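Project channel, design review

CF: Before we commit to the Neoasaia chiangmaiensis constructs, I'd like one complete example in the thread so the newer folks can see what an input/output pair looks like. Taking Purine nucleoside permease.
RD: sounds good, go ahead.
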Amino acid sequence: MTMKHALAACLFLLTAPVAWSAPAPLAPRVIVVAGWENGADTGDAPGEYQDWVEREHLDTVVPVRGGPDKPILRRNAEGVYGLVLRNGATDLMTLALDPHFDLHKTYWIFTGISGVDPNVASVGSVAWARWVVDGDAMREVDDRDIPKDWPYGLYAIGADRPNALPVDANHYGSVTDVAQLTKAYPLNQGLARWAFALSRQAAMVDDPAIAARRAAWKGFPNAQKAPFVMMGETLGARRYWHGASRNRWAEDWVRLWTRNQGTFVMTNEESQTNQGEMRLLASRGFIDADRVMVLRSASNFDMPPPGVPITQSMGDEGPGQNVAFDNNERAGAPVVQALIAHWPRYRDHIPTAD
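CF: and here is what came back for Purine nucleoside permease:
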């Protein structure tokens, strides 16, 4: 071969196209979603995320394209991931739009602490939801100005009084089908019952200080119980409400929108936003809505005990938070373990108690 031919061959090798394929996207088996964390993700006072990170050994930080500077995603070697929503539902969209992830077979467990209805459960208790109910968009009349036969001034858009479903779809001129006004996001109830069956015998922790506080709840037998696992609905509302009157509204609102099938248990400020985002992502083919679960734990009651001023109990979350963080992970861990242990089956066949 002449020098000219050798040079031409080298140039060809240097410039010829090289077959290359991108690495396969990461396919999480389970993503546990937490709303916030105190300080670091490990090693200090826990928030909603830390117990999951430490106990599930989510030791590997996983970058998310377009995510914030502080990491939001971790994983372990078994395909269990933890996502902390440092920027709320925006972080859900950021993860779903990252092409490095395939979320079509992923199971989701949305976790977090909540206020609890003392008619139904106690501080430290945990509930698997069948519906997430939106408590934001509604009509409101000041309770001091309502008709005498109304229980409160909150009622559905498209209705003409409290505790009535909409009959007029044309609110703001933007909706033509009254069904679009629903405020109840149904979850996969067969999957929720399956999860509850696995976790109902999980050992819940208690706290002497919380146990002592239960004595104040005379006439509320469920509020006086030690922490337990149950099924019951989550109501999300951006405003932080408190008190017996609004607790009555929450009980009624959940019954109304679930057609008397659901029971109000937990209230927080973000569940409705997160599930709205997940429904949108499902409609666009990014995730499977039938694989979404919601697990909330009670850090405080949503009204004061008998004889206590409402302003004294408003926001009284601190004493119950650690028990709620702890029991949330304890109730959810058996579900995560079962999904991983039987992944060859559950990858393509969603478990159900039906």
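RD: helpful, thanks. The mean pLDDT is 93.
CF: The chain is about 30% helix and 15% strand.
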